Amino acid sequence: MTTLISWASSGGAKGRCDAKCYDADSPPAVCTCICGGANHGAGEARATENTSRQAQAMIASYAGMPGLTAEVCVEARQQSLPL
Description:
By secondary structure, this protein is an alpha+beta fold.
């Protein structure tokens, strides 16, 4: 099961988008995933593209805020898995 995006807070809250979402058969209205339903039932390939576009949009929006800089560290970039 591939996790496309995840988050965790220092208080213990966490969320993620994985195959339970992008391979779902249920209606998107019941999706409580971090993607907000954007990847719900979309399949892994399309959900990966959606997540990449969403991340780029988030980086661009933060980069435009006064006093903030936005970077993606090398560790956060999508890594290819060895075969």
